[in-house]
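Quick one:
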Amino acid sequence: MGINTERKSLNLNKCSVSQEQSVWIEQDIIVPDTKPDAVKIVHVSLTPYVSDVDVMDAKVKISGKVNYFIIYKVADEKFSTRGLFVTYPYTELLEVSGIEKGMEVSVTPMTKNVIYSLLNERKISVKTEVAFKVRGKSRININLINSFDKDSQVECKMCESNFYNIVKSTRNVITSKEDIMLPKESEDFFEILKVDASIKNTEFKESYNKIMVKGDINLRIMYLSENAEDNIKKFNTTIPFSSMVELENITDNSKYNINYVLQDFGIRQNSEITSTKTLTADYQIEVNVDMYEEERVEYVEDFYSQQDELKFENSNVDIVRRNRNVTKNIDIRENINGIIPSDSRIIDYDIDINNINTIVNGNEVRFEGNAKLYIITQNVNDMEMDNKSVDILINQAFNIEDLLDNEKIYLNLFSDNVTLSQNGNDIDFKFTLIAKAEIEDISNMNIIQNILQEKLDTSNLDSMNIYIVKNGDTLWSIAKKYKTSVDKIMKTNDIDNPDMISIGQKIFVIR
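Output:
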């Protein structure tokens, strides 16, 4: 017959799947008839976006777009350089082992290598290596046994642990169009050369059964002005965004994991506005919210009955008991001599950290590889633009404190506080390498279902036994073997501490 139990239901993450796969995306970009012929490519920057993810078994189909910003030289008396901003869609099918249909999957694209050439004055070939970082998570609902019916006379080995019980998960997409005004003192806008967009300053605020998420899209814009004498201009600005996320059962114990993904971004002159100081940006941000509560749960780890034979079904599953996040900021500084011609000035720069490898050895996290510094310069005499790249060797490490053997690390790298100062031919370059480590505490749980009681066959069980302790034995395992109790063994053998038995020790066992 069945046996009654009290159980605690928990909704937990299973062990994550994380892989990186590189794809080459090729595109021939046509200079439109409204722009002059290209005679030289000065600089190409691009940003890939992922807007749709279709999850299949062992495969992920992704689609999105790539924004290309191209600065090129022209044979024009007024402007020696021009800018070209174009967008092209793409679709890729990634083979990802361990991914299963139904998983929550996020895909982060990173530009690793760019190769470009001018095929003729109207066609530019761009080949880009994009690394797609795929992270897949799945959920499982488990029921842990808290206790048995008092009349069942079951011996229980109890365990206590913290769990991150996921109460609610939701996905919101923020889509908006915003006008961007150049500062009043700025030169009138003529043409976009380059735009860098990133999400910053995120925060949230609780309300009744919902939270408000908000932040800024930070923009660095380089453009051509109508002033032919000094026509390269830059300015920084922000676009604020916010959204209400509907949730349920928010309590004082509710906590949140919130992830923001910029899925799409575009910028253009607004043809409906005559002002030469106004741009219009379209963007799409995905906001993923996990609401959870940290609970300390006491549950039955093992059990048996002295009077009955208990049969049951069980399954082992790897679950994430809890997550913790560790952030480490590493300041990088590099002095580079003789890199800038004496008649040139720096007008823009970028740092690319996508070729830095992360190596985890025990609790040490090491970063090895090259960060690539891209510099755009302009000759102060003839206003010609040029670009340079410098490899900056990265060899840094830090330790994660209190890392357990069963914890798994997922790393993401970011750059911030990028500054560059020019001193004649030399530059002093600084930036902060931000390592964000998500650490999963993984446990193998034995999930017990359908417990049945049957009559115990005691024909092979003696009323008194002498047992010699072997390696790996515990008083619990001995008591379970002979269908007695730990308390009875301790009293019979004058044992004060159940954890203090030694190999070779004789234990008297009475049923």
